[in-house]
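Late entry, written up from scratch paper. The run itself happened at the end of the previous shift, but nothing got recorded in the book at the time, so transcribing now.
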Amino acid sequence: TTRALERPRGLPPVPDRPVSTAPEPFPSPSPPASSRPPPSDPFRALPSVGPSTGEAMRAFKRIDFRPVLYALVGVALVALGAAIGRWVMQEPPPVPELVVRSAPAGAVVRLDGELLEGTTPLTIPVELVAGRPYRVKVEMPGHRAWESTVVPQPGPIELMANLPPERRTLIVETDPQGALVRVDGHRRGRAPVTLEELRVGNDYLIRVERDGRVKEVPLSVTPDLADTLVITLPAPRR
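Output as recorded:
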């Protein structure tokens, strides 16, 4: 007989449990690694979001881009036409225009030594080149010439030439010496007399007097007037 173990005093009683006499099952062995199924791809379960690359390329090739191309070409042609129209319609830049005036008026003008038709005030009848220097000379008989170099720019340019009178100096001598000299009725002294500021192109009347003898000589002042004028009085009356 088996002696029952005595329970320590003071502990609550433990209910009796049936004791199983069946052997415990052993866990089934794991299958070999070669026979295990590959781990599942979590992304394969996601739904497809679009066509494959080949299908996308075929769909892209089926698109007709000709309308878009025609529209772009049309826009480019319109822009080009507008640019050409603005270029054609714009006003050309002003050309140089040279106007020559003088005091007094009526002088002739030379451009780079070439005599131009007409007199001042004169608009140069030659097509000038902007930025190119030109030599302008204004001449008038009896006046000092005026010269200047001008570099015309686009647009009108005006030149004013002051032409002071050209003057000569003349020494008047008489034979015999000491005669009274008058110029245009004005007494100028006894010979020899120096006459200054005679204007070129003017006419003067020179009158000499001595001992009742008188002689008048008209004088036209020219640029090549001699420096000395000798006037011989007539012989005295008997």
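The chain has a mean pLDDT of 81.
(Scratch paper discarded after transcription.)
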